[in-house]
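Q: what sequence does this backbone want?
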C-alpha cells in the first residue's frame, strides 16, 4: 500500500532535483530541507524493531545536519565532510549487523577501481583537506561494499534496496568530491542531488521490506 509520506517524498524529491538542474534557486533552497525532513518522517513511520533500523535513522539525521551545514556555509567544508563520514559509518554498522559476508570479488574490485580513480583526480587540488576527503571516500567505499556483501550473501529484496541505495550514495559522494575539488560541471549539482536522494530513498525504503 502506497503511503502519503512515500508520495510526499517522491513529489518533493522530484521538485528538488528539477530545481537543482534548471532552477529557480529558491525552489532548490525550499525543497532541499523539505525532502530530507520528509525522508526522516517516512523512516520514523516505519515499524523499526532492531538496532540496525535505528542506526539508519541516526545516519539519516547526520545527513540532514550535514546538508543544512552545506546550505549555510558552503565554503567551510570540514564539518560537512565529518558529518557525512559519520553518517556513512552509521549506515555501515547498520548494514554489517546481519554479518553475512561472501567476499564477492567483482564488487570489491569495481569499488576499489572507482575509488582509486576518484583519489587520483582529487589528490592535488584537495590540499589541506586531503586527509578528511580520503576518509570520506573510504567510508563511502566501505559502506557500499558492506551493503553489496550483504545482498550477495542473503539475496533478499531488503538487501537489494540497501545495496543500490548505498552504491548511489557512493557515486554521489565521488562526483561531489570531483566537482568540488577538480572538475566542476554544469550538471554536477543535479546529478549529485539525484543520486543522493534516490540512494537515501532506497535505504529508507528497506525499512518497509
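A:
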Amino acid at each position: 500500500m502506497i503511503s502519503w509520506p512515500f508520495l510526499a517524498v517522491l513529489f518533493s524529491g522530484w521538485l528538488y532535483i528539477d530545481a537543482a538542474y534548471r532552477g529557480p534557486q529558491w525552489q532548490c533552497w525550499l525543497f532541499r530541507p523539505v525532502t530530507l525532513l520528509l525522508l526522516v518522517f517516512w523512516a520514523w513511520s516505519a515499524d523499526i524493531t532492531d538496532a540496525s533500523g535505528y542506526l539508519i535513522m541516526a545516519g539519516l539525521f547526520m545527513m540532514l545536519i550535514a546538508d543544512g551545514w552545506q546550505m549555510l556555509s558552503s565554503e567551510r567544508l570540514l564539518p560537512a565532510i565529518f558529518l557525512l563520514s559519520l553518517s556513512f559509518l552509521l549506515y555501515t554498522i547498520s548494514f554489517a549487523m546481519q554479518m553475512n559476508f561472501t567476499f564477492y570479488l567483482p564488487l570489491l574490485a569495481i569499488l576499489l577501481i572507482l575509488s582509486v580513480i576518484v583519489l587520483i583526480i582529487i589528490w592535488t587540488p584537495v590540499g589541506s583537506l586531503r586527509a578528511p576527503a580520503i576518509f570520506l571516500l573510504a567510508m563511502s567505499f566501505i559502506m557500499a561494499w558492506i551493503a553489496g556483501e550483504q545482498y550477495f550473501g542473503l539475496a533478499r529484496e531488503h538487501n537489494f534496496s540497501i545495496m543500490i541505495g548505498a552504491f548511489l550514495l557512493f557515486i554521489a559522494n565521488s562526483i561531489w568530491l570531483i566537482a568540488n575539488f577538480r572538475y566542476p560541471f554544469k550538471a554536477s549539482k543535479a546529478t549529485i542531488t539525484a543520486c543522493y536522494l534516490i540512494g537515501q530513498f532506497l535505504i529508507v525504503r528497506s525499512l518497509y521490506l
